[in-house]
Amino acid sequence: MAGSKLLQDMRDVLQRRHYSIRTEQAYCEWVRRFVKFHHMKNRENFDPGEKKVEEFLTHLAVNLKVSPSTQNQAFSALLFLYRHVLQKPLQPSIQAQRAPERIRVPVVLTREETARVLSALSGVHQLFVKLLYGSGLRILECLRLRVHDIDFAMNSITVRDGKGQKDRVTTYPKSLTPILQEHLQRVRIIHERDIADGFGEVHLPHALARKYPAAAKKWGWQYVFPSKSRSRDPRTGVQRRHHLDPSPINKAIQQAAKLAGVTKALSAHTFRHSFATHLLQRGTDIRTIQALLGHKDVSTTMIYTHVLRQSGQGVVSPLDDLPAVDG
Q: Does residue 92 lie within any of the structural domains?
């Protein structure tokens, strides 16, 4: 089958071009599904590329009814495959049926609900979710925070290689300083113990590991939320302490929502939505919120104005001003 050698070539190219391991896994999975869909046995089966890609993307939209973002990710993976692995760039003539756009209003907590859910959390999970809400971070952005990304003096957090591989600076909640500094003291003890045991290195982005070989053990580069145990890097086999896994955090949020009596379907991203909506309620300028969230286009940020409108803010229900009827 065309798959195994091709997927290894795909991984090699993705790694050389410094794509994240999550992108590598997602792209390789789409290529695997593409190969299986067309029953490909060798590389000659990939031609004509445009027709085969068009058929596969249409199948995703029509038969599997995937979301537009899922279809776009599959398309990006196949564009990468043909351009960088097969060395046969696709022509811009692909006319696949597009997945229908679904406009969904994000789940947002009230300020009172937010406080209840945060109170129902404890320990590292509570600190983590407070940072999500207090700074408007995505879950992976928070997981990937390094010690030197938090500036206590300037009350800011630098998000590095966020969505779209862009850096940005967002606000930092001063009220977290004592708890976070105490947390970092415990993290430093773990790091020093790792160094004493002959470990202590952390994964460095891109070519920094080659340019600054000693930086991997420096305190400032360590993860703010390290894993409880060391693990082997799937790419290099080097044993390191990675950051926390996102799955237990989302489970803790769901359990906290249940304890707090909140029936809304919550995830870590709900706190980013709530951060933006609550800033808007306080009168923060939409462009400022856009910059804090790292949105490329202000139209993405405008969804939170729709949230406020649809929640009925400032609009009195007609039921509430009906005239009273005697008898």
A: no
